Amino acid sequence: MLTTASTWATPLLSGLTSSLTPSNPPAAPFRLIAGLHLVSLPLLILCAPETVFDRSDSSDSDSDASTKASRGYIRNVIRFRPPLTSSSSSAARAVRAVVAPSTCLVSALSAVPYAALWGLAAVGAILVVPEPLELGPVVVGALLTGPWVLATLVVGGLACFYRGFHDRFTRRAGCVVVAVGAFLVVVGLLSFGLGLDNFMIKPVPSSPPYFTPSAAQQLSPPLLALQLGILAAGIHVLDTATRPLIARSASFSSSSVAAAQGSIGDMHAAIVAFRSFAAAIGIATLRASPLRPAVIAMTVVQILVVPAVLLLCWYAGEAVWRADGRVLRLVDARELKQSGSFFDHD
Question: Which CATH number does the domain 97-330 belong to among 1.20.210.10, 3.40.50.10470, 3.40.50.300, 1.20.1250.20?
Fold first, then answer.
């Protein structure tokens, strides 16, 4: 929820700060971000080393750290002392996780939705600023509150019963979650993209104005925010199935809990990187001029990709997990070919 709020509440806060500083509105958001960095960077420097602390080698002690030890810890952090031990195998596994089959399948499910969400959000903001709409920074920021509100509701609602739902996250439940998320993505993508295109001047001009005065009066920014929010909600529903899918693969191919946790983290980081890359492509390539063909093409691709991934996971799930184990080198490939039990051999 914090990530969702920090992502989608930023345009609204930027619009509010721009309205409070009419002398130099474009500089207001950057001043706000710089002020937040004054707080976030010290927290990052002081808290990041604690997240990578190897607790398995630590001694059990209930006593509080002394002042001398605390000062020594801060001095070591300020000096940016590198870790005492490093694992080349862990770094290589993180690279191999990028091409793991489960990583590619989950990334394929969310690549088009992320590209569509960020691309349409950028296009919508560009279209409503010029005449005849002339929406200010605050209204444009409010236009992007739809993804913030609906995505927060989805994330918060799932967080209430995620632990119990995660325990019962069977293959059938995963398919249902993916189908519901894909349905919301298609609804939000078509309603926002085609709805916005219907009000635009035909043929779409390369420069403003993009709407006639009568069409601009009929265009509803709250409805656009709702449609964009449905798309964002579908993405977060799809994201619900991400960690259980890769966790099932890691538990199948890993020999220990530590190896499974490392594989889950590496594959999830690769998925996040793929999603960010897809969002960047959507922002860079999606334009207002061929909006209708682009929206229809992304919808068709998503409709084709989702059933293909679900069928592959349903009928060839173990084959995908075995391939993950081979790619990540978590198990010996010869052991995966054994059909008998280990206890059948002398």
Answer: 1.20.1250.20
